[in-house]
Amino acid sequence: MEKNFCSDNCSGVSPEIMQALAEANQGHMPSYGGDLLTQEADTLIKAALGRECDIYYVYNGTAANTLACKSVLRSIDSIICPDSAHIFTHEVGAPANATGSKIITLPAIDGKIKPEQIRTAYEQETYWGPHATRPKLVSITQSTKWGTFYSLEELAAIKAVCEETGMLLHVDGCRVYNVIVAMDCSLAELCQHIDILSLGGTKNGLMFGEALVFFHREAADGFLHLRKQGLQLHSKMRFISAQMKALFTNNLWQKNAQQANLMTERLADGLLKHPDINLYCPVQTNQLFVTMPRTLADKLMAERAFYPNGPECYRMVTSFDTTEEEVDGFIATALKEL
């Protein structure tokens, strides 16, 4: 089957993950997370994250984000996030529907918001006292919708505002592994600034499954019930846990993310040799946003599919299984159009 540059959701399953699923399929194990594989996955993830935390496995990213919000918000509360955040743009209003909470969006530059924007939004909302909502959660994405990331210093500054104002910081980490590789830091360094993390899996080689990680452990109170009520308690939990265990064994998460990042960098370097192709925003992880004439885009999409992302703006995403040969062949097609 032909590969594409549409999304890392389009990729297959990492061979190591598939092998882990096959091994988990042998015999019977306790259900609902009472199995040994779930315990072993928890141990590996906690060691990588470097902090005490509570971990809960769910089916997908929308569920992780929505239940993260649900765990800490009431209908009188609000969420502050970038105007490009998935919880606002691409999750069918699930967080707002589940919580009844207002979402306060801030204009983002290359997908990112700044601490002073958050503080201003908080002050403007709380100025009205009981006539407005109570901002309780800041939600940002690593990497952002535009493939950029918050540095450790930027995260620390945002966390400082959250602490000043009594808000918690949630990070949508559907592509957090690509960020760690790009930043050349550890998961532990990144997580020191986070209260709740939606820890991805599917975009980095899993068949299905994500994890919701509570570093602010009080926020996890009642989450076992909330996960069940939220339709996310997998009875055969071992089939999520086995994948997460494999992802965190021998740093498979790092290997997969590094390959994806390198292929995006290679793709960008090659395509930018064409005078009509230009960067739309910085290339930092495994997503490339470029501008080009529609006629050129149509010819390239016939070679290998990718998505438009606005007028003459296009997104290309590489995956753990993208190869140099696939990238170089696509670049050669582009340069033939000179």
Automatic annotation (TrEMBL):
It comes from the Bacteria. Keywords: Pyridoxal phosphate. Residues 5-292 form the Aromatic amino acid beta-eliminating lyase/threonine aldolase domain. Coiled coil: none annotated. Gene3D superfamilies: Aspartate Aminotransferase, domain 1, Type I PLP-dependent aspartate aminotransferase-like (Major domain). GO terms for molecular function: lyase activity. InterPro entries: ArAA_b-elim_lyase/Thr_aldolase, PyrdxlP-dep_Trfase, PyrdxlP-dep_Trfase_major, PyrdxlP-dep_Trfase_small. Pfam families: Beta_elim_lyase. The keyword Acetylation does not apply. GO terms for biological process: amino acid metabolic process. Its cofactor is pyridoxal 5'-phosphate. PANTHER family: L-THREONINE ALDOLASE-RELATED, LOW SPECIFICITY L-THREONINE ALDOLASE. Belongs to the threonine aldolase family. Homotetramer. This is Aromatic amino acid beta-eliminating lyase/threonine aldolase domain-containing protein. It comes from Endozoicomonas numazuensis.
